[in-house]
């Protein structure tokens, strides 16, 4: 069994360290959302994480990451 709560704490610390780098923030928010999803958290906790990831991806102008965040279980186009 994975330590999803520990992973979320790690990613939250990563957010603090990477503040201002919207591409890395997008990836980190996506990791937080996926860790919470694997932990079985409710949609109400997942949705804001996915929204923040999408917002950061849009700011970074990374369409591949935006697609991945809209449909996280489908690989982004290359």
UniProtKB/TrEMBL annotation:
It is found in: Nucleus. Keywords: Nucleus, Repeat. Its main location: nucleus. It comes from the Eukaryota. This is Uncharacterized protein. It comes from Saguinus oedipus (Cotton-top tamarin).
């Amino acid at each position: 069994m994975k330590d999803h709560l520990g992973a979320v704490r790690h990613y939250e610390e990563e957010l603090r360290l990477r503040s201002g780098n919207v591409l890395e923030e997008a990836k980190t928010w996506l990791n937080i959302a996926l860790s919470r999803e694997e932990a079985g958290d409710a949609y109400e906790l997942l949705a804001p994480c996915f929204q923040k990831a999408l917002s950061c991806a849009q700011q970074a102008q990374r369409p591949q990451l935006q697609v991945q965040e809209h449909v996280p279980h489908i690989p982004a186009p290359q």
